[in-house]
Specification:
Distance between the termini: 27 Å
Oligomer: single chain
Strand content: 5-15%
Radius of gyration: 16 Å
Order of helices and strands: HEHEHHHEH
Number of strands: 3
Shape: elongated
Length: 134
Amino acid sequence: MFRCCRAVAPGMIARGRGKIINVGSMYGKLGVSHYAAYCASKAAADGLTRSLAAEWARHGIQVNCLAPGYMNTDIPRAAMADPKTRERFLSKVPARRLGEPEEAAALAVYLASPASDFMTGQTVYLDGGQTMAW
């Protein structure tokens, strides 16, 4: 993530504008047993986002982080086939459902659009309220 951001920055600085959307996870905010390396890497995405946003804002570059929770993709969908597992996972999500990939895509479009030009250094948790309730 750092290398990718660093690779695109010179062109954005030269143009005086740019949008970087890092992808994190709600696990960057939550401590979860047996996921230490994953949680640490996603917390690092949050810190990197804030640091680069502070450094590059004067160049017209916005750096934000999209941090999804449980999404309706192949791996979670397979785990949710078991009713007990589904209840265990969804009991932690105030919205009581998985997010849809289209919802994450819509947030990415917003972060890439001029509508978010005054937003930088933010991690947006798209998690049905899970990080709020944890």
